[in-house]
Write a structure and sequence with these properties.
The chain is mostly helical and 465 residues long. Helix content is 59%, strand content 1%. It is elongated, with a radius of gyration of 30 Å.
């Protein structure tokens, strides 16, 4: 039954988007029909116009078709719900001069054609009306046709999408239960194509406006509903994880300007997905939660919301100073480690998250976040997490294995303590082996005591490591 239903949905989708190929098709719901209404992008006014028309006729099929076509296409979403461009004084002055010149030309044409016949005058007026209509339609499509020109004018934190208009549109559309399925099916078709574009075609590097797709989808207030958790939201999270670091930083800075309620809504959406996947599956030492792509993708998306929560709160960065690069002492110890195949890791302390470097902030600098850090902890995930395996993935840093220690905000105190326990044990074993090798190579006597080197100028920092 599921296969048959899927086949019918795909068939209906292709009929709406591509048509049957018969130019004389009489099916008004087919794209090949001459009376079929083609809408290549959406604005708040267009949505309200179609919605009012459907409400009067009590038939929401046209609006469902438009939602399915636009919200399943990344190209259509990129040019939808654009901000109205505000002209500068120089642009307004130049436009005014052009209008004056146009009026003078029209007056001259009117004087020259005064002796013409009435039929000719009527034909000229009709042509002028057609020209004005074409100019109006071209100005209506101005944002979409000049998308490439606006790419260079965008600031580091500036977006071209009208977020307030999107929220108003969602508020009206989601109030109608007949339209919910259209958004759901559109997101299922949209996400794999977006993931492919980001992974193989580097679409964001060519057009930064591609970020509008994620901004528009994340404003959907029903993403946490059970219908989305099964397939649509996991696919979308996988696509969002493919965003380059620059795009993630821009999205985080945009979200940091949201209210605490908006941040909490997005946080609860990803937490809901993680909890749903954890409860729906049986994880153990063989079937690790680290191997679940949906949970991993949701955790990475939750990480962006977490940093938006940090950046949007009260952040104190005045005390930060650039770390002084200390010269590596040339000693027999270093030479011996090189001979033994040992490399100095983390020369400047713990590893720094690339997102922190992109944003220029640290989590420790946040004095008061928008929402409490405790809300980001997922208890069901902590219950099934195999910390010994997770710590191994964290230390090895393999690309095909994800470690939740890279998202420490999602772990509770017990899980973090267990991770520190494994870290201390491994470091003790490592120091013990190095001591034995020193005794064999240099002829030193075995010393069971741990030797610590504390710098006088950094005694507090070294003591806390």
């Amino acid at each position: 039954k599921r296969a048959a239903a899927k086949h019918l949905i795909e068939r209906y989708y292709h009929q709406l988007t591509e048509g049957c190929g018969n130019e004389a098709c009489t099916n008004e719901f087919c794209a090949s029909c001459p009376t079929f209404l083609h809408v290549n992008y959406l604005t708040e006014e267009i949505v309200y116009e179609i919605l009012d028309s459907c409400t009067e006729s009590e038939d929401f099929s046209p609006l469902i078709r438009v939602i399915g076509r636009i919200f399943s296409s990344a190209e259509a979403l990129v040019v939808s719900f654009r901000k109205v461009k505000q002209h500068t004084k120089e642009e307004l002055k130049s436009l005014q001069e052009k209008d004056e010149d146009k009026d003078e030309d029209e007056k001259e044409k009117a004087a020259c054609s005064a002796a013409a016949a009435c039929s000719a005058a009527a034909a000229c007026s009709a042509a002028a009306a057609m020209e004005e209509d074409s100019e109006a339609s071209s100005s209506r499509m101005g944002d979409s046709s000049q998308g490439d020109n606006n790419v260079q004018k965008l600031g580091p934190d500036e977006v071209t999408v009208d977020i307030d208009a999107i929220r108003r549109v969602y508020a009206r559309l989601l109030a109608n239960e007949n339209l919910e399925t259209a958004f759901l099916n559109a997101l299922v078709y949209l996400s794999p194509n977006v993931e492919c574009d980001l992974l193989y075609h580097s679409v964001y590097a060519r057009d930064p406006n591609y970020l509008n797709v994620f901004i528009i989808v994340m404003e959907n207030g029903n993403l946490h509903s059970p219908e989305y958790l099964e397939m649509a939201l996991p696919l979308f999270c996988k696509a969002m994880c493919r965003l380059p670091l620059e795009a993630q930083g821009k999205l985080i800075r945009l979200w940091s300007k949201y209210s605490a309620d908006q941040i909490r809504r997005m946080m609860e959406t990803f937490q809901q997905l993680i909890t749903f996947k954890v409860i729906s599956n049986e994880f153990n030492s063989r079937n690790l939660v680290n191997d679940d792509d949906s949970i991993v993708a949701a955790s990475k998306c939750l990480k962006m919301v977490y940093y938006a929560n940090v950046v949007g709160g009260e952040v104190d960065t005045n005390h930060n100073e650039e770390d002084e690069e200390e010269p590596i002492p040339e000693s027999s110890e270093l030479t011996l480690q090189e001979l033994l195949g040992e490399e100095r890791r983390n020369k400047k302390g713990p590893r720094v998250d690339p997102i922190e470097t992109e944003l220029g902030v640290k989590t420790l600098d946040c004095r008061k976040p928008l929402i409490s850090f405790e809300e980001f902890i997922n208890e069901p995930l902590n219950d099934v997490l195999e910390m010994d395996k997770d710590y191994t993935f964290f230390k090895v840093e393999t690309e095909n294995k994800f470690s939740f220690m890279t998202c420490p905000f999602i772990l509770n105190a017990v899980t973090k303590n267990l991770g520190l326990y494994y870290d201390n044990r491994i470091r003790m074993y490592s120091e013990r082996r190095i001591t034995v090798l020193y005794s064999l190579v240099q002829g030193q006597q075995l010393n069971p005591y741990l030797r610590l080197k504390v710098r006088r100028d950094h005694i507090i920092d070294d003591a806390l490591v």
